Protein backbone atom coordinates (compact mmCIF):
# COMPACT_ATOMS: atom_id res chain seq x y z
CA UNK A 1 0.00 0.00 0.00
CA UNK A 2 2.76 2.39 0.92
CA UNK A 3 4.49 1.68 -2.37
CA UNK A 4 1.30 2.17 -4.40
CA UNK A 5 0.62 5.57 -2.87
CA UNK A 6 4.16 6.67 -3.55
CA UNK A 7 3.80 5.47 -7.12
CA UNK A 8 0.57 7.39 -7.68
CA UNK A 9 1.93 10.64 -6.31
CA UNK A 10 5.13 10.35 -8.32
CA UNK A 11 3.14 9.53 -11.45
CA UNK A 12 1.02 12.62 -10.98
CA UNK A 13 4.11 14.74 -10.58
CA UNK A 14 5.64 13.37 -13.79
CA UNK A 15 2.38 13.44 -15.75
CA UNK A 16 1.82 17.10 -14.94
CA UNK A 17 5.14 17.99 -16.52
CA UNK A 18 4.56 16.31 -19.89
CA UNK A 19 2.18 17.01 -22.70
CA UNK A 20 -1.05 15.30 -21.74
CA UNK A 21 -1.90 14.58 -25.38
CA UNK A 22 1.31 12.64 -25.94
CA UNK A 23 0.59 8.89 -26.07
CA UNK A 24 2.85 6.84 -23.83
CA UNK A 25 5.44 4.59 -25.50
CA UNK A 26 4.34 0.94 -25.57
CA UNK A 27 6.18 -2.31 -25.05
CA UNK A 28 5.17 -5.84 -25.98
CA UNK A 29 5.68 -8.55 -23.40
CA UNK A 30 4.84 -12.22 -22.99
CA UNK A 31 3.81 -13.24 -19.49
CA UNK A 32 2.09 -16.04 -17.58
CA UNK A 33 -1.66 -15.99 -18.25
CA UNK A 34 -2.29 -16.57 -14.55
CA UNK A 35 -1.31 -12.97 -13.78
CA UNK A 36 -3.71 -11.39 -16.29
CA UNK A 37 -6.50 -10.82 -13.79
CA UNK A 38 -3.95 -8.97 -11.65
CA UNK A 39 -2.61 -6.83 -14.51
CA UNK A 40 -6.17 -6.00 -15.61
CA UNK A 41 -7.02 -4.82 -12.12
CA UNK A 42 -3.81 -2.96 -11.36
CA UNK A 43 -2.81 -1.53 -14.73
CA UNK A 44 -6.19 -1.25 -16.50
CA UNK A 45 -5.76 0.18 -20.02
CA UNK A 46 -2.01 0.58 -19.43
CA UNK A 47 -1.60 -3.17 -19.99
CA UNK A 48 -3.84 -4.69 -22.66
CA UNK A 49 -4.02 -8.41 -23.42
CA UNK A 50 -3.63 -9.02 -27.16
CA UNK A 51 -3.64 -12.80 -27.37
CA UNK A 52 -3.08 -15.90 -25.21
CA UNK A 53 -1.77 -19.33 -26.18
CA UNK A 54 -1.33 -22.30 -23.84
CA UNK A 55 -0.98 -20.33 -20.63
CA UNK A 56 1.17 -17.55 -22.07
CA UNK A 57 -0.27 -14.10 -22.81
CA UNK A 58 0.90 -11.28 -25.05
CA UNK A 59 0.37 -7.87 -23.48
CA UNK A 60 0.90 -4.35 -24.77
CA UNK A 61 2.03 -2.30 -21.80
CA UNK A 62 3.03 1.34 -21.27
CA UNK A 63 6.81 1.52 -21.15
CA UNK A 64 6.50 3.56 -17.97
CA UNK A 65 4.77 0.66 -16.25
CA UNK A 66 7.45 -1.96 -16.92
CA UNK A 67 9.44 -1.33 -13.73
CA UNK A 68 6.30 -1.42 -11.61
CA UNK A 69 5.29 -4.70 -13.26
CA UNK A 70 8.72 -6.20 -12.63
CA UNK A 71 8.45 -5.13 -8.99
CA UNK A 72 4.98 -6.64 -8.65
CA UNK A 73 6.03 -9.89 -10.34
CA UNK A 74 8.60 -10.28 -7.62
CA UNK A 75 6.48 -9.06 -4.69
CA UNK A 76 3.26 -10.90 -5.51
CA UNK A 77 4.33 -13.81 -7.64
CA UNK A 78 7.83 -14.58 -6.29
CA UNK A 79 9.44 -14.29 -9.70
CA UNK A 80 12.82 -12.93 -10.62
CA UNK A 81 12.07 -11.67 -14.12
CA UNK A 82 8.58 -13.05 -14.79
CA UNK A 83 8.04 -11.78 -18.31
CA UNK A 84 9.87 -11.35 -21.59
CA UNK A 85 10.09 -8.00 -23.39
CA UNK A 86 9.99 -8.18 -27.21
CA UNK A 87 11.49 -5.96 -29.90
CA UNK A 88 8.59 -6.27 -32.35
CA UNK A 89 5.08 -7.68 -32.77
CA UNK A 90 6.48 -10.37 -35.09
CA UNK A 91 8.97 -11.50 -32.48
CA UNK A 92 6.34 -11.47 -29.74
CA UNK A 93 3.87 -13.51 -31.82
CA UNK A 94 6.60 -15.95 -32.80
CA UNK A 95 7.42 -16.50 -29.13
CA UNK A 96 3.75 -16.87 -28.22
CA UNK A 97 2.83 -19.25 -31.01
CA UNK A 98 5.92 -21.46 -31.07
CA UNK A 99 4.34 -24.22 -28.99
CA UNK A 100 5.97 -26.87 -31.18
CA UNK A 101 9.41 -25.47 -30.38
CA UNK A 102 8.54 -25.30 -26.68
CA UNK A 103 7.36 -28.92 -26.67
CA UNK A 104 10.58 -29.97 -28.37
CA UNK A 105 12.67 -28.03 -25.84
CA UNK A 106 10.67 -29.65 -23.04
CA UNK A 107 10.77 -33.31 -24.02
CA UNK A 108 13.45 -34.15 -26.60
CA UNK A 109 16.75 -35.71 -25.53
CA UNK A 110 19.71 -33.59 -26.62
CA UNK A 111 22.60 -35.75 -25.44
CA UNK A 112 23.52 -39.16 -24.18
CA UNK A 113 22.96 -38.71 -20.47
CA UNK A 114 25.39 -41.29 -19.10
CA UNK A 115 27.83 -40.90 -16.22
CA UNK A 116 31.34 -41.99 -17.19
CA UNK A 117 33.76 -39.46 -15.67
CA UNK A 118 33.76 -40.30 -11.98
CA UNK A 119 37.49 -39.78 -11.39
CA UNK A 120 37.63 -36.37 -13.10
CA UNK A 121 34.44 -35.10 -11.45
CA UNK A 122 35.34 -36.34 -7.97
CA UNK A 123 38.70 -34.62 -8.17
CA UNK A 124 37.19 -31.34 -9.37
CA UNK A 125 34.35 -31.07 -6.88
CA UNK A 126 36.79 -31.59 -4.00
CA UNK A 127 38.40 -28.29 -5.02
CA UNK A 128 35.35 -26.06 -4.62
CA UNK A 129 36.19 -23.25 -2.21
CA UNK A 130 33.50 -21.52 -0.19
CA UNK A 131 35.90 -18.64 0.44
CA UNK A 132 36.32 -17.93 -3.28
CA UNK A 133 32.56 -17.85 -3.83
CA UNK A 134 32.07 -15.54 -0.85
CA UNK A 135 34.73 -13.13 -2.13
CA UNK A 136 33.04 -12.78 -5.52
CA UNK A 137 29.62 -12.28 -3.93
CA UNK A 138 31.06 -9.57 -1.67
CA UNK A 139 32.81 -7.86 -4.57
CA UNK A 140 29.72 -7.81 -6.81
CA UNK A 141 27.41 -6.71 -4.02
CA UNK A 142 29.77 -3.81 -3.21
CA UNK A 143 28.55 -1.97 -6.33
CA UNK A 144 25.70 0.43 -5.56
CA UNK A 145 23.63 -1.56 -8.02
CA UNK A 146 24.15 -3.56 -11.18
CA UNK A 147 21.16 -2.08 -12.99
CA UNK A 148 21.30 -2.41 -16.78
CA UNK A 149 21.15 1.33 -17.30
CA UNK A 150 23.57 2.50 -14.59
CA UNK A 151 27.32 3.08 -14.78
CA UNK A 152 27.87 0.77 -11.81
CA UNK A 153 25.95 -1.90 -13.74
CA UNK A 154 28.43 -1.52 -16.58
CA UNK A 155 31.43 -1.41 -14.24
CA UNK A 156 30.36 -4.62 -12.48
CA UNK A 157 30.24 -6.54 -15.77
CA UNK A 158 33.69 -5.21 -16.71
CA UNK A 159 34.95 -6.48 -13.36
CA UNK A 160 33.52 -9.95 -14.13
CA UNK A 161 35.21 -9.87 -17.53
CA UNK A 162 38.59 -8.94 -16.02
CA UNK A 163 38.28 -11.52 -13.25
CA UNK A 164 37.26 -14.32 -15.61
CA UNK A 165 40.12 -13.32 -17.95
CA UNK A 166 42.60 -13.74 -15.09
CA UNK A 167 41.28 -17.26 -14.46
CA UNK A 168 41.97 -18.43 -18.02
CA UNK A 169 45.09 -16.35 -18.78
CA UNK A 170 47.26 -19.51 -18.93
CA UNK A 171 45.08 -21.20 -21.58
CA UNK A 172 45.20 -20.60 -25.31
CA UNK A 173 41.92 -22.46 -25.92
CA UNK A 174 39.84 -20.00 -23.89
CA UNK A 175 38.71 -16.38 -24.23
CA UNK A 176 36.40 -13.84 -22.58
CA UNK A 177 34.32 -11.35 -24.56
CA UNK A 178 31.79 -8.65 -23.85
CA UNK A 179 28.51 -9.04 -25.73
CA UNK A 180 27.31 -5.51 -26.40
CA UNK A 181 23.58 -4.75 -26.54
CA UNK A 182 22.48 -1.90 -28.79
CA UNK A 183 19.63 -0.53 -26.68
CA UNK A 184 21.30 -0.15 -23.27
CA UNK A 185 24.81 0.24 -21.88
CA UNK A 186 25.33 -2.88 -19.76
CA UNK A 187 26.98 -5.65 -21.80
CA UNK A 188 26.67 -9.36 -21.18
CA UNK A 189 29.92 -11.32 -20.70
CA UNK A 190 30.81 -14.65 -22.29
CA UNK A 191 33.74 -16.97 -21.53
CA UNK A 192 34.41 -19.71 -24.07
CA UNK A 193 36.55 -22.83 -23.68
CA UNK A 194 36.84 -24.25 -27.19
CA UNK A 195 36.04 -27.88 -27.79
CA UNK A 196 36.74 -30.03 -30.82
CA UNK A 197 33.16 -30.67 -32.00
CA UNK A 198 30.41 -28.22 -32.99
CA UNK A 199 28.39 -29.03 -29.86
CA UNK A 200 28.04 -26.37 -27.17
CA UNK A 201 27.21 -26.43 -23.45
CA UNK A 202 26.09 -23.22 -21.75
CA UNK A 203 26.25 -22.38 -18.04
CA UNK A 204 24.86 -18.95 -17.25
CA UNK A 205 23.21 -16.56 -14.83
CA UNK A 206 22.33 -12.88 -14.83
CA UNK A 207 24.78 -10.23 -13.75
CA UNK A 208 22.32 -7.37 -13.19
CA UNK A 209 20.51 -6.43 -9.98
CA UNK A 210 17.56 -4.22 -9.08
CA UNK A 211 15.76 -2.81 -6.07
CA UNK A 212 12.32 -1.20 -5.99
CA UNK A 213 10.73 0.15 -9.14
CA UNK A 214 11.36 3.83 -9.09
CA UNK A 215 14.80 5.43 -9.51
CA UNK A 216 16.42 2.07 -10.02
CA UNK A 217 19.58 3.58 -11.54
CA UNK A 218 20.35 5.16 -8.16
CA UNK A 219 18.88 2.53 -5.86
CA UNK A 220 21.01 0.48 -3.48
CA UNK A 221 20.69 -3.03 -4.93
CA UNK A 222 23.50 -5.27 -3.65
CA UNK A 223 21.85 -8.35 -5.20
CA UNK A 224 24.07 -10.70 -3.19
CA UNK A 225 21.77 -13.67 -3.64
CA UNK A 226 20.04 -12.35 -6.78
CA UNK A 227 22.31 -12.95 -8.53
CA UNK A 228 25.88 -12.33 -7.39
CA UNK A 229 25.55 -15.85 -5.97
CA UNK A 230 24.95 -17.39 -9.40
CA UNK A 231 27.83 -15.46 -11.00
CA UNK A 232 30.12 -16.41 -8.09
CA UNK A 233 29.09 -20.07 -8.46
CA UNK A 234 29.89 -19.90 -12.18
CA UNK A 235 33.20 -18.16 -11.45
CA UNK A 236 34.31 -20.94 -9.11
CA UNK A 237 33.29 -23.52 -11.73
CA UNK A 238 35.42 -21.71 -14.33
CA UNK A 239 38.41 -21.49 -11.97
CA UNK A 240 38.47 -25.21 -11.27
CA UNK A 241 37.80 -26.32 -14.86
CA UNK A 242 40.49 -23.96 -16.20
CA UNK A 243 43.08 -24.89 -13.57
CA UNK A 244 42.55 -28.61 -13.99
CA UNK A 245 43.82 -28.47 -17.56
CA UNK A 246 40.59 -30.18 -18.64
CA UNK A 247 40.25 -30.11 -22.43
CA UNK A 248 36.58 -30.29 -23.35
CA UNK A 249 35.29 -32.16 -26.38
CA UNK A 250 32.28 -29.87 -26.66
CA UNK A 251 32.67 -26.10 -26.46
CA UNK A 252 31.72 -24.83 -23.01
CA UNK A 253 30.43 -21.26 -22.68
CA UNK A 254 29.90 -19.42 -19.40
CA UNK A 255 27.61 -16.40 -19.53
CA UNK A 256 26.80 -13.44 -17.30
CA UNK A 257 23.64 -11.92 -18.79
CA UNK A 258 22.76 -8.23 -18.78
CA UNK A 259 19.25 -6.97 -18.06
CA UNK A 260 17.47 -10.11 -16.85
CA UNK A 261 15.44 -8.22 -14.28
CA UNK A 262 13.73 -6.08 -16.89
CA UNK A 263 12.36 -8.87 -19.11
CA UNK A 264 15.23 -11.33 -19.79
CA UNK A 265 16.62 -8.90 -22.36
CA UNK A 266 20.27 -9.96 -22.39
CA UNK A 267 19.76 -13.71 -22.58
CA UNK A 268 16.95 -13.31 -25.10
CA UNK A 269 19.25 -11.42 -27.51
CA UNK A 270 22.05 -13.98 -27.14
CA UNK A 271 19.80 -17.04 -27.47
CA UNK A 272 18.10 -15.55 -30.52
CA UNK A 273 21.40 -14.82 -32.23
CA UNK A 274 22.80 -18.28 -31.50
CA UNK A 275 19.64 -19.87 -32.88
CA UNK A 276 19.90 -17.75 -36.04
CA UNK A 277 23.46 -19.06 -36.43
CA UNK A 278 22.17 -22.63 -35.99
CA UNK A 279 24.27 -23.22 -32.88
CA UNK A 280 24.21 -26.84 -31.79
CA UNK A 281 23.51 -26.31 -28.08
CA UNK A 282 23.15 -29.60 -26.24
CA UNK A 283 22.51 -28.23 -22.76
CA UNK A 284 21.89 -25.00 -20.84
CA UNK A 285 22.25 -24.70 -17.08
CA UNK A 286 20.80 -21.58 -15.44
CA UNK A 287 22.12 -20.49 -12.04
CA UNK A 288 19.96 -17.72 -10.60
CA UNK A 289 20.03 -17.57 -6.76
CA UNK A 290 22.16 -20.31 -5.22
CA UNK A 291 23.01 -19.10 -1.72
CA UNK A 292 19.90 -18.93 0.47
CA UNK A 293 18.74 -22.18 1.99
CA UNK A 294 15.04 -21.54 2.50
CA UNK A 295 13.61 -25.08 2.23
CA UNK A 296 14.22 -28.48 3.69
CA UNK A 297 15.35 -29.41 0.17
CA UNK A 298 18.82 -28.17 -0.81
CA UNK A 299 18.33 -27.97 -4.57
CA UNK A 300 14.99 -27.59 -6.35
CA UNK A 301 14.70 -28.17 -10.07
CA UNK A 302 12.10 -26.09 -11.87
CA UNK A 303 9.98 -28.28 -14.16
CA UNK A 304 8.34 -25.56 -16.25
CA UNK A 305 10.05 -24.18 -19.36
CA UNK A 306 12.89 -26.65 -18.84
CA UNK A 307 13.90 -29.98 -20.43
CA UNK A 308 12.59 -33.05 -18.62
CA UNK A 309 15.35 -35.37 -19.78
CA UNK A 310 18.11 -32.99 -18.79
CA UNK A 311 16.40 -32.42 -15.43
CA UNK A 312 16.41 -36.17 -14.82
CA UNK A 313 20.11 -36.27 -15.80
CA UNK A 314 20.86 -33.55 -13.24
CA UNK A 315 19.01 -35.66 -10.68
CA UNK A 316 21.38 -38.57 -11.42
CA UNK A 317 24.36 -36.20 -11.06
CA UNK A 318 23.12 -35.11 -7.64
CA UNK A 319 22.50 -38.69 -6.49
CA UNK A 320 25.94 -39.82 -7.59
CA UNK A 321 28.20 -36.88 -6.75
CA UNK A 322 26.31 -35.04 -4.00
CA UNK A 323 24.53 -37.84 -2.09
CA UNK A 324 24.39 -35.62 1.01
CA UNK A 325 22.29 -33.05 -0.89
CA UNK A 326 18.50 -33.37 -0.84
CA UNK A 327 16.66 -32.29 -3.97
CA UNK A 328 13.22 -32.14 -5.53
CA UNK A 329 11.02 -30.36 -8.05
CA UNK A 330 8.86 -27.24 -8.18
CA UNK A 331 7.56 -24.72 -10.73
CA UNK A 332 8.54 -21.07 -11.02
CA UNK A 333 6.19 -19.74 -13.73
CA UNK A 334 6.73 -18.20 -17.16
CA UNK A 335 9.88 -16.21 -17.70
CA UNK A 336 11.07 -16.63 -14.12
CA UNK A 337 14.68 -16.51 -15.28
CA UNK A 338 16.97 -16.69 -18.33
CA UNK A 339 16.42 -20.40 -18.98
CA UNK A 340 13.12 -19.30 -20.59
CA UNK A 341 15.08 -17.45 -23.30
CA UNK A 342 16.85 -20.66 -24.31
CA UNK A 343 13.74 -22.81 -23.95
CA UNK A 344 11.88 -20.40 -26.24
CA UNK A 345 14.49 -20.98 -28.95
CA UNK A 346 14.10 -24.76 -28.69
CA UNK A 347 17.15 -25.51 -26.55
CA UNK A 348 17.25 -27.81 -23.48
CA UNK A 349 17.55 -25.76 -20.29
CA UNK A 350 17.49 -26.56 -16.58
CA UNK A 351 17.13 -24.31 -13.56
CA UNK A 352 18.34 -25.79 -10.27
CA UNK A 353 17.21 -23.30 -7.63
CA UNK A 354 18.11 -22.53 -3.99
CA UNK A 355 14.72 -23.50 -2.53
CA UNK A 356 11.12 -24.18 -3.38
CA UNK A 357 9.67 -21.11 -5.03
CA UNK A 358 7.58 -20.15 -2.01
CA UNK A 359 10.59 -20.45 0.32
CA UNK A 360 12.97 -18.28 -1.69
CA UNK A 361 14.94 -15.39 -0.25
CA UNK A 362 12.36 -12.65 0.35
CA UNK A 363 14.97 -9.91 0.65
CA UNK A 364 15.80 -9.97 -3.05
CA UNK A 365 15.10 -6.80 -5.03
CA UNK A 366 15.74 -4.73 -1.88
CA UNK A 367 18.78 -3.13 -0.23
CA UNK A 368 18.68 -6.04 2.23
CA UNK A 369 19.82 -8.64 -0.32
CA UNK A 370 23.26 -8.94 1.30
CA UNK A 371 25.47 -11.91 2.12
CA UNK A 372 24.48 -11.51 5.78
CA UNK A 373 21.17 -13.19 4.85
CA UNK A 374 23.31 -16.26 4.17
CA UNK A 375 25.28 -15.92 7.42
CA UNK A 376 28.12 -14.15 5.66
CA UNK A 377 29.19 -17.29 3.81
CA UNK A 378 28.45 -19.44 0.76
CA UNK A 379 27.86 -22.95 2.05
CA UNK A 380 24.68 -23.31 0.02
CA UNK A 381 26.28 -22.05 -3.22
CA UNK A 382 29.10 -24.59 -2.84
CA UNK A 383 26.58 -27.36 -3.67
CA UNK A 384 25.67 -25.60 -6.92
CA UNK A 385 29.33 -25.14 -7.95
CA UNK A 386 29.86 -28.88 -7.45
CA UNK A 387 26.74 -29.59 -9.49
CA UNK A 388 27.85 -27.24 -12.28
CA UNK A 389 31.25 -28.96 -12.49
CA UNK A 390 29.70 -32.43 -12.68
CA UNK A 391 27.20 -31.16 -15.27
CA UNK A 392 29.92 -29.65 -17.50
CA UNK A 393 32.15 -32.71 -17.46
CA UNK A 394 29.53 -35.46 -17.69
CA UNK A 395 27.54 -33.68 -20.41
CA UNK A 396 30.79 -33.07 -22.30
CA UNK A 397 31.88 -36.72 -22.35
ZN1 LIG B 1 17.56 -13.36 -10.43
Task: List descriptors.
397 residues, alpha/beta, Alpha-Beta Plaits, Aminopeptidase, 2 domains, four-stranded antiparallel beta sheet, 13 helices, globular, disordered N terminus, binds zinc ion
Write the layout of secondary structure elements.
Layout: H1 2-16, E1 26-32, H2 36-43, E2 47-53, E3 56-62, H3 66-77, E4 83-86, H4 89-97, H5 99-107, H6 118-125, H7 130-141, H8 151-167, E5 174-179, E6 188-193, E7 199-206, H9 224-243, E8 251-257, H10 265-276, E9 280-286, E10 299-302, H11 308-321, E11 327-330, H12 339-344, E12 349-350, E13 352-353, H13 379-396
Parallel strand pairs: 7-8, 7-9, 9-12, 10-11
Antiparallel strand pairs: 1-3, 1-4, 2-3, 5-6, 6-8, 10-13
Helix pairs in contact: 6-13, 7-9, 9-13, 11-13
This protein binds zinc ion.
Written description of the protein model:
This protein has 397 residues and is of the alpha/beta class. It has 2 domains: 2-101, 2-Layer Sandwich (Alpha-Beta Plaits); 108-396, Zn peptidases (Aminopeptidase, 3-Layer(aba) Sandwich). The chain has helices at 2-16, 36-43, 66-77, 89-97, 99-107, 118-125, 130-141, 151-167, 224-243, 265-276, 308-321, 339-344, 379-396; strands at residues 26-32, 47-53, 56-62, 83-86, 174-179, 188-193, 199-206, 251-257, 280-286, 299-302, 327-330, 349-350, 352-353. Helix 9 (224-243) packs across helix 13 and helix 11 packs across helix 13 (379-396). The termini are far apart. The model is unreliable at 1-20 (pLDDT under 50). Bound molecules: zinc ion (ZN).
Amino acid sequence: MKNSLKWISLSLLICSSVNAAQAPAKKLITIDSDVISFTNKSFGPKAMEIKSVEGISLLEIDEDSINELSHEMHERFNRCGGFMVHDSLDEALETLESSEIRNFAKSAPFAEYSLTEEDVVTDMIAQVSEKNITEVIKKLSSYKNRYYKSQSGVDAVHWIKDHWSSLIAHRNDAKVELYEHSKWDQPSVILTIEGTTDETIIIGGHADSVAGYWGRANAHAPGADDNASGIATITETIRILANSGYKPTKTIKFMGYAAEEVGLLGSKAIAKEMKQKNANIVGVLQLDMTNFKGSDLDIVMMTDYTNQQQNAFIGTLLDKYLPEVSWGYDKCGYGCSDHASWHGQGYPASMPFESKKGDMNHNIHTSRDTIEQSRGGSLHAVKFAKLALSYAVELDR
